[in-house]
Amino acid sequence: MYVDKEKCIGCGSCVTYCPMQALSVVEDSLDINHNECVECNICYRAGVCPCDALEIKELSWPRIVRSVFSDPLLSHGNTGVPGRGTEEMKTNDVTNRFRPGYIGIAIEMGRPGTGTRFYDVEKVAMAVAEHDVKFEILNPVTHLMTNRATGQINPEVLNEKALSAIIEFEIPSEKTREVLRTIKDVSAEIETVFSLDICSRVAQDGILPQVAPVEQEDIALSINGKTNVGLGRVKEKGGAMA
Amino acid sequence: MTHTLHRAGTATSLGNDFVVFAMGAQNVNRDGCAPRLRRIFEKMLEFEPVNYGDMKTGNKFSVGNEKILESIKDNSIVHAVFTSAEKVAEVLKALKELDAGMSVVVSGVLEATGECCGKVGLHRHTVEHSLGIWGNIARLTEQEVLHISTMCGHGMVAFSLIKYMVEEIKAGRTTPGKASEELSRMCHCGVMNPVRAAELLTLMTS
């Protein structure tokens, strides 16, 4: 984000809109802490500046990583999905991304509201990679990895900060407990927070396979979650849907 | 991985907070699906959601439904927010009858969602649980603020903006209703629940 100091009157209208508290008024003009700014552009899009002093500037590598992970209006080139995640379980009824016998786990680094540096993302990714997890290939964090077997991330971006970044992977269900233990251990070694979730196909008898291993690890399951209700349908040959 | 999961709050408060959304799947049924998503969105609007939106365009409070409808594209995700499980069951029944072939997801209390599916004869396909917040949680803000901010999974509703609104309400310069609409305006996808937000702001200022 850029502020035109000639236009800014230092009213501070935009300051409270910043999720990273990167904005402040100094000597009657807006000051942007560019180290903390994640280029989410919400201060601009809030439309509260009375003199149009805020501007979105084109960013160069590696700083551009901040905006593609923080501004949900941008689609990642590799996912084609708006936002910073993937379709994950949302379209599982037609993609079969998560098959019976497998568990999906996502670790959203920096959420809620704290943001994350990519060195923290790498630390957690490398920890879970020890279990030979299968990182989601369409996930933007996976695309930043220089080694998908170890979870190492391009060193050029490690000090960049994003509003959040999602480590997403699939494991055979029998590995769930050991992976959860690793996640618990590495959570004590990072600067930021993360939101954790787990998903699986619902068995024919209605059983949710992820519940038992989570409870066995004494981890609390939130009462709320997401349910794919199974209304999706695969296109028939020739492109038409019945 | 998900913009509607991880909503924090009490069981009572979360019991009035459901998001229903639909999308196409890349390389499966997404090409040419915009008209189907438009029909789904139109159908959901019939049930008077308290908020709605498509991330690429905006939400009820930033652009309104006409702009959203005319802007729906193949890669849109159309969302609608409802305040009761009963309404969600009605919406699911209508979407099942519409049979648009797009993936539909309900975000909310899982037990209630499961009951809604059962009522209308849907077998849940995949379920995702939130396992909460981990790591350096000393960096988090107050729980009451989190209960509001986590309704925007992309983090567009700043802790500082919520605290500012609380002060504005206390000073009599705005109301919980107006403050919740301003907060909801920041959530591009339209998944923030303004009714719940207003209730929470009322509790925080009373």
Give me some keywords for this one.
heterodimer, A: 242 residues, alpha+beta, Alpha-Beta Plaits, 2 domains, four-stranded antiparallel beta sheet, two-stranded antiparallel sheet, 7 helices, B: 206 residues, five-stranded antiparallel beta sheet, 9 helices, globular
Concise overview:
The complex is a heterodimer of chains A (242) and B (206). Chain A has 242 residues and is an alpha+beta fold. Chain A contains 7 helices and 13 strands.
Describe this structure in words.
The complex is a heterodimer of chains A (242) and B (206). Chain A is α+β, with helices and mostly antiparallel strands and 242 residues long. Chain A has two domains: 1-57, Alpha-Beta Plaits, CATH 3.30.70.20; 73-216, 2-Layer Sandwich (Alpha-Beta Plaits). Helices cover 21% and strands 22% of the residues of chain A. Chain A has helices at 42-45, 64-70, 92-95, 118-129, 140-144, 176-187, 211-216; strands at residues 2-3, 23-26, 29-32, 54-55, 102-109, 116-117, 134-135, 145-147, 152-153, 161-162, 165-172, 193-201, 224-228. Chain A has a four-stranded antiparallel beta sheet with strand order 7-11-5-12. A two-stranded antiparallel sheet of chain A has the order 1-4. In chain A, strands 2-3 form a two-stranded antiparallel ribbon. In chain A, a hairpin with a 4-residue loop joins strand 8 and strand 9 (152-153). Chain A is elongated and about 65 Å long. Chain B is α+β, with helices and mostly antiparallel strands. Chain B has two domains: 11-119, ACT domain (Alpha-Beta Plaits, 2-Layer Sandwich); 139-205, no CATH class. In chain B, 43% of the residues lie in helices and 17% in strands. Chain B is built from nine helices and six strands, in the order αβαββαβαβαβαααα. Chain B has a five-stranded antiparallel beta sheet. In chain B, a hairpin with a 3-residue loop joins strand 2 (51-54) and strand 3 (58-59). The longest helix of chain B has 14 residues, at 85-98. Chain B is globular, with a radius of gyration of 17 Å. The N and C termini of chain B lie far apart (35 Å). The mean pLDDT of chain B is 96. The interface between A and B is large, with 87 and 82 residues. Strand 13 (224-228) of chain A pairs antiparallel with strand 6 (126-135) of chain B, so a sheet runs across the interface.
